[in-house]
Amino acid sequence: MRRNRPLPRRAALPLAFLFVFLILTLSPGRAAADHPASRGFLDLSDHTFADSGLATLDGDWAFYWGQLLTPEEAAAVPPSGYMPVPGGWNGAQVGGAALPADGYATYRLQVRVADPNRSYGLAIRYMGTAYRLWVDGRLVAANGTVGTTPETSQPELLPVAVHFTPQEPVVNLVVQVSNFDHRIGGV
After folding, report:
1. pTM to 2 decimals?
2. What is the pLDDT of residues 72-87, one digit of tens each?
3. What is the extent of the structural domain holding 98?
4. CATH code at position 165
């Protein structure tokens, strides 16, 4: 019969790090989408930033393939479908055809917030394509030049942070994206 012996110190340390990593990864205060966006809508009305920390905008955004729509147009036109963000559009099916990496599209997400009079921020760390971002109809960020051809589109890769105060409980985000240079298109 074997006796239970304590783990050697060099074996216990990696296990302790693994335990801490799992606790941090699975804790509700993690900057994760506890309730991911669905069909172009994300409800953050019960999200308390002081208790839960950052929130992500991950999930299924409304997607308009082959269209560079203004915020007003995107609100009035039915989407081609819904696209997971973050993620590439490569291979996604729209109208029975698989999408290539090259192309352009508009994404739209409506986000319900708890306090529309509070200042909020968005951090865009990496998007390897050209884009323009509107919050509630106001252009707040852009990288590169969004276009409909390789000649009219120019990618740029710079991290961006924007701050805004919504006027209504539902914030409307619209992102135009074009990609003719990266192997993966999308947000």
Report:
1. 0.81
2. 999 999 999 999 999 9
3. 31-179
4. 2.60.120.260
